[in-house]
Design brief:
alpha/beta; Alpha-Beta Plaits; 5 domains; six-stranded parallel sheet; 19 helices; membrane; Trk K+ transport system NAD-binding subunit; transmembrane; NAD(P)-bd_dom_sf
Amino acid sequence: MNYWWRRIALSLVAVFALVFVYAGIYQAGMAAFEGVNMSYFEALQFVIEALTTAGFGGDSADWQSAPTNLMVIAMNLTGVLLVFLALPLLVVPLFQQALEDRPPESTDLTDHVVICSYTPRSDVLAEELEAANVPYVFIDDDPELVVELDRDGIDAIYGELDQAETLRAANATDARALVTDIDDETNAMVILTARELSSELTIVSVVEDADVASYHRYAGADEIVRPRRVLGQSLATKATTAVSTELRDTIELSEDFTVTELLVQAHSDLVGQTIPESGIRDRMGITVIGAWFNGEFVPVPGPDDVIDDNTILLVAGRRDDLTELKSRTVSTLQRRPERVVVGGYGVVGQAAVETLADEGITTFTIDTVDADGVDIVGSVTDEPVLETAGVTDGRSVVLTLDDDAASIYATLVIKQIAPSIEIIVRANETENIPKFYRAGAEYVLSLSTVTGRMLASVLIEDEEVLTPETQFELVRTAAPELVGRSLGDVDLRARTGCTVVAAERGDELLTDLGPEFIIREDDTLIVAGSDEAINQFVAVAT
């Protein structure tokens, strides 16, 4: 929008400059050719009358010479061009474009979710809501961003986030919920304002600092979501599983049925084999739900998909069998010291350090800001800093920076000085995850994913996200559109890329689901897959 206003301003400046220059020329010309002395302001009045075609004639009796008449003719033609050409071709379109670029300031949506404001973390939540057919509208105080969202077909309105008028324009009183994800201070203001408008509106606040959670509840928030802490704990848990053969970080659906994801280490027993060659299915009786190969999720790994040290297996089965499989994912080489370097000591980094300490694992922290708990002040992209932190002698590095570009660069640097170390990374935007894997990271989890899943689990009825803190998504959901049909008939893997791993029927958990399994009305399905696959399933089944 600023671009168009700049063009309008430049056009006006050019017109005024032309008027002032013509006034000087006319004043000088009348003195030189006609011997008439006039003030600059008299000349300026004539030029304005000539260019605007408003009429003139007071000076016509003095135009005796050819140069003067040619000068007046030139001014008249310039005025005609300005009025009949420049105005419709330049000025009018510019003003039309400027008016078209006005951001929307209200919405007609009802029974929707109001989201304050739009951030890169919002994309995952938006996709979850769209899959469940839940309408939503963003509120943001950046008019250019709102215009851009509106052009992309995303409902968004412009306004001050903590003002009652803005929330009324967003139909907050008719909404099913309001989500505020800005910063802790502004979130509190939004909560107070929204609660004044409606005592029944469900308000969900995304909190950074755990200490302010109680204040947000006191202000009126119904639900508090802390994705940064959950993300830090999850990254740390991945580091603990990397240094132990013990099975951890699992989802226990019953005493005899567990779902987990396993990171395959370099030089482990599984590296270089396909799923059929590994015997995971046939000999161990484990269901392979899917696998990530260099960041790409494959729902049904085939004979061409070879396990390497970047592979993450999503598996389900008996805990004893999964424990045996876990031992096969650990490197057969001599184990390195159980020491983890944590790069970044914000909310995510602190949660990671606390989780590692609870497991008895030694940590060494790096941050650019000196604070209690920081072992060395510096950048994780600086080789001397990394060497001082003992990266070359450690088992894992957990990167928790809030800048994806810096984290990707740090991954490249670390892999150069310590090629065998495992790098577990926080990403902020899901679109950057493939870049992390190409840079050499072994495990990547994005803040957008964790935030979106945690919010979706609160906002979407009949859907519970069981794994907000893992690369795969496991949901418990009803499937009304699939009632009376068999899994073989629906063929969900082919249609959506996800797998129905179990079904809850009354008090019974059914896990051995073949293609002949028929979905009943009161069944609750437990479905696993990537975020995209789960969203496709929800769109098909609900």
